[in-house]
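Check the record.
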Amino acid sequence: MQSLEGPSKIHVIVKYIYISTVYGNVRNASSHKKMTGSLFKNIFKIPALSISKQRGLSNVGVFAMQKRLFASSNDGQMTVREALNAALDEELTRDERVFLIGEEVAQYNGAYKVSKGLLDKFGPKRIIDTPITESGFTGLAIGAALSGLRPICEFMTFNFSMQAIDQVVNSAAKVHYMAGGLVPCPIVFRGPNGSAAGVAAQHSQDYAAWYGAIPGLKVVSPWDSEDAKGLLKSAIRDPNPVVVLENELQYGISFPMSEEAMSPDFLLPIGKAKIIREGKDATVVSYSRTINFCIEAAEKLQADEGISVEIINLRSIRPLDTNTIVNSVKKTNHLISVESGFPHFGVGSEICALAMETEAFDYLDAPVERVTSADVPTPYAQNIEYMSFPNAEVIVKVVKRSLYRKKK
């Protein structure tokens, strides 16, 4: 296997994992009856069932992009889904070592249509469907990375990455260090992260703090279309393992795309945050979907109270852009973090520690505030689910509290 060149290596490993999946004890015996995804359609000649339906995931956003729309035909707008698709397309074209692997990424065009059209363009050697066996295909992808390829390993949701967390944390993140710097592991782990809509406790967790705690991993979390394209392209080109935490509910949202962002050479540096709204009274730090609520809250505070809020889009969880946060606090003297993760040991906790351990502390006029999800498993009921995550109303309340503004 070591002597094989290019993408042909992939199919040797895929064949091995396929055989071990069909005849081995993967998950449990009953799971084999359910494994009727696209990989098995041609082999067993039975109708393929959507894995997302088998696993009880919602269909939010699955059929939202029946036709690919490019920014050139849409007044400089592009959805996050389209931006991710463009990044994959450009990097697969640029480097023949790059391939995409995961459940339903090929024949079904991706559970959320992020990989739409890629199978037709690049073929089954580079866009590879797998059975429901995260530990198996993640280990396969890591082995391919160690052999010189550049895999993009898609999790249908990062909640399922828990099945492969030993592979991600103990293999991908550590092998370069444990090999004395001689064996790099250039791999991307990507997929939707955090809360969606009505998918309950097991499918709604935010893994930014989980993976952000691990030395050897880089972790990014895009918010808009430029983030999605620029960060994913940088992740694919990075020589280190990179976790790309997307959000299902952001996929269908359109954002402006600059002429620079439309270029196939567009990259965003990992480890650099962006100030998306200038302000002078309070600094709000967030990432991914919760930025939507931060913007809504900032506009309300400006209109109702004359409070000027500066919003920092972290983009990168690890490494964290400490300088941008500290410099903003020096200007505003107040700091609030907003995230969809749990309150204990989260990204907000790290930002609080940052404020205590850097010169930002000398500029604070009030304690750092955190806005997080509720400290409970995510409820299924829609009304309670809404109450368990940050929203604009809560952020407004916390910013005013930080500024010692009285309630009206």
The first strand starts at residue 77 and ends at 79. The chain has 16 helices and 14 strands. The longest helix spans residues 8-23.
